[in-house]
Amino acid sequence: MSVAPSIASKKVAPTTALEIHDLTVAYRHKPVLWDIDLEVPEGKLACIVGPNGAGKTTLIKATLGLVPLASGNVKIYGRPYREQRHLVGYVPQRETVDWDFPVTALDVVKMGTYGKLGWFRRPGAREREWARECLDQVELADFAHRQIRQLSGGQQQRVFLARALAQDAKVYFMDEPFAGVDAATEGAILRLLQDLRSAGKTVFVVHHDLQTAEEYFDWVILLNMRLLACGPVETTFTRENLHKTYGGRLTILDQAAEAVSRRSPE
Amino acid sequence: MFLALTNPFGPDMLPLLLQVVLLASLVNVSCALVGSFLVLRRMSMMGDALSHAVLPGLVIAFLFSGSLGVVPMFLGAIAAGIATTFLTQALHQYGHVSTDASMGVVFTSFFAVGVVLLKRYASNVHLDVSCVYEGSLLWLAMDTETVAGLEIPRQVAVVLPVLLINLAVMTLLWKEFKLTTFDAALATSMGFSAPVIHYLLMALVAMTAVASFRSVGSILVVAMLIVPPASAQLLVHRLGPLLAVACAIGVFVAAAGATLAIWLNVEPPGMMAVVAGVVYGLTVLFSPTSGLLSRALFHRRTASRILREDLLAMLYRVHEHDADQRLSLHEAIDAVGGGAAARRAFRSLRRQGDLRQTVEGLALTDQGRATASQLVRTHRLWETYLVEELGLALDHVHEPAHRIEHFIDEEIREQLAKSLPQSAEDPHGRDIPE
User: Fold this and answer.
1) What is this model's ipTM?
2) How far is B191 from chain A (nearest CA, A)?
3) Does domain B295-419 fall into CATH 1.10.10.10?
4) Is residue A137 part of a domain?
5) Pick among A27, A61, A66 to test the B interface (most B CBs inside 10 A)
6) Which among A177, A162, A64 has a CA at the least distance from the CA of A111?
7) Which CATH class name applies to B11-278?
8) pLDDT tens, residue by residue, B295-350
9) How much of chain B is in helix, strand and coil states, percent to nearest 5?
10) Domain spans in chain B, listed from the N-terminal domain onward
11) What is the pTM of this model?
């Protein structure tokens, strides 16, 4: 698809991996994200940081078209998400799926290849081999045929990452991959993220641990219902910005959201 | 409605039995296929809801077309099924009602409307209310047509296409069903719309329910949608095998239920539902991986292993304390709690050649001593770990070590040994065996 001449002038530089413009998301009329504008260049490890209820997961879900937008738009490499699905990998929170589901670790990783296969086509020997390689990259090759309930929490998280690798994407969104994993897994995940960056991928990670954010990531998105800052860690991850994000309750914004929710017709 | 059978197993009954089994098997396999995904999606009650809610669709389709033709019937059922799914969702979202409550409201209302319509406008057709519950399997099985020299029930023309449609959709959209069921968010982000698959599944369930309705009635439809997949879930742990086992259970239930029903002179669908319940009960008890029996056996085996190990470790410690001291059999058994279990543990140790009984008392063999020394090693390493790494007081470490020594394998034990400062003694100053 070519870009129409009238908007060609607005086309972002090709090295911008993610561009969000005036994004607002509301649940039942209650806004949870207000007017987000951000741009992140290619090849960054970006963490999304903010207090509970800041809308971090919602930001990812809105980007991936999983929740409806009240306004605004999202572009991946300059084009709407719908056209760029094949460039995007997603790791949801571990608790969002049923680990009793009757599949093996390898089955789960194979699911990463489904997007490129499209409707109706079934994974074959090539997908199987690729899934094995991805499982090997997270050092779980020996666990390929385990039912997923029989894996430890850290191993389950690594299976999810292997599935994202199997998506073979350019931009990754990971929702709390470090939550509830042991130190060894945390190290393994971090090395994987760094490998992805070396390969020119862009990775967005919802992250809770402020202690390690500065050390692990080179880009930071500070979020608390609205965007407080977005930029390189060295200049953005400042005391002042953190205070704005975590400090003082956003009473006016909260009250406004409540009011919108209360006074809207169902 | 019912046949008085004089000789249930006479040669003239065999064709009827086979026809009943054929018809019921087709229905049950259809139900097991779509039901597996209902169970995996934790939407079992949706099967119940849909199999009732299709009734008004059925009656309205009949009123419009004036016949019980297959096509209007399916269209009516699918419309009613989609409407139920949609209304349940809408009520939940906009009416601020929980999903189960909104499902309950929608399907009971739909069913009631169906019953009223049926009584008021369609009471002259062969679709009365009791047949909605229990079906009329025997009559339909006897209503046969000769195809290629075989007597085939006419109703097969209704249930077989449904089975084929279910099979075709599952085959074609296997990975889409799998992915949307396991991880709807990822599926949707990849472009496989989870809502589309959801509504497709609901349409299949509605279609299956209505095709099965006349033969086996709503009670068995609900049972067959849920019970075989729920049993299969306890037996296998991959998606493909789960569906296969669920289908096999469906066929078994049809065969066993029909045979018992003819023998006991009762309606086959009810009997099949009972058999299904019994099959589920048996899997809960006897499933090799998650059955109550295998878990109880496992607990028992673990308990007796712990007892044997305690006995060995105790004899090791006695010998360590005083190389000349020998415990008598009675003393040893009393020391590990006594009773029949302790005597059994002793006998099995002697049989394995871990200890022998001499005139002076009990003694470990070399083999028994080797096992015991590893247990004591684990115990003392763990005590060291608790004191050194966790900073526990000396009087806090024996009990936890005493329990955990039975569960730590060689790999963890040697990791533990490596992580601790090299020391040949535990915190109580006793030797850690090699």
Assistant:
1) 0.89
2) 7
3) yes
4) yes
5) A66
6) A162
7) mainly alpha
8) 999 999 999 999 999 989 998 988 888 888 888 888 888 888 878 888 888 889 98
9) 75, 5, 20
10) 11-278, 295-419
11) 0.85
